[in-house]
Amino acid sequence: MSNSLKWCFALPLTYVVYLVLSIILPQGGLIAASLRYLVIIAVFLVVCRKFLDFDVKLFFFKTGERFSFKRFFSGLFLMAGILVLLTLARMLIRPETFVFTFDPSHLYEWFFSLVLVFLAALAEELMFRAYVAHFAATGKPVVWKAVLASSVLFAVAHFQNPEVQAHAVESMVFYFVFGAVLMLYYLKDGSIEFPLGLHIGNNLVAAWFVTYPTAALHTNALFTAPQSAVEEYVACAVLLVLVLVRPSDR
Fold first, then answer.
1. pTM over the 0.70 mark
2. 187-213: per-residue pLDDT in tens?
3. Do β-strands 99-100 and 223-224 pair in parallel, antiparallel, or remain unpaired?
4. Which of 12, 33, 140, 161 sits a CA distance of 20 to 30 A from 113?
5. In angstroms, what CA-CA distances link 149 with 24, 131, 152, 169, 179?
6. C-alpha distances out from residue 15 to 20, 41, 54, Å
7. Are 53 and 7 in contact (CB under 8 A)?
8. Taking the domains of the chain in order of start, what are their residue ranges?
9. Nearest 5°: phi and psi at 161?
């Protein structure tokens, strides 16, 4: 089997192995969900290492480098900062739509939701950004094709989320656009740190600051409000401008 053909089968193989293992994995709850993401990350890395004979360290950072926590936290605080500021602006305009729902007795959920958010984002960045980028590099690298493939896979992976069932068009468009932005950052830097930080920053705001009734992840957030994709769209627009104007790190 050719190397390119193997790359076509690595993701489906990961999914099949994960489905088999999921039979014995616990169901429901933040801890169980975290364990499932940990398993799929492990399965994915083993498949890439053994089936593709690929050095999986290259998924995380460029050759000869270590993981850059500076890049990671820069992405996290940038995305979280943009979303918090935009949400605060909406709170000033429509304060009646926000309900304070934080329960101090469930503060422990913040820790478990942090673990889940990190593992979920890491799994998705490895499979939909790093993997797609390296897959594209096995042939003639075409940036727009890699970005399109990453966006489509990212959107499809979230198709069954509750918010998609409630607000199909705006949710799927957001996942597609956000996936494209994250892929552009990955291709710009050639490493996972910054897009991973952006991804986690986005999810942490939804988990800790403001959530909504149809959210995929129900956590002990500070506020609950009706779903609105405006903040996410504006944040994506800002990030898109930034990634297009800044010089490449490579």
1. yes
2. 888 889 999 999 999 999 999 999 988
3. antiparallel
4. 12
5. 32, 11, 5, 19, 9
6. 9, 11, 18
7. no
8. 62-245
9. -65, 145
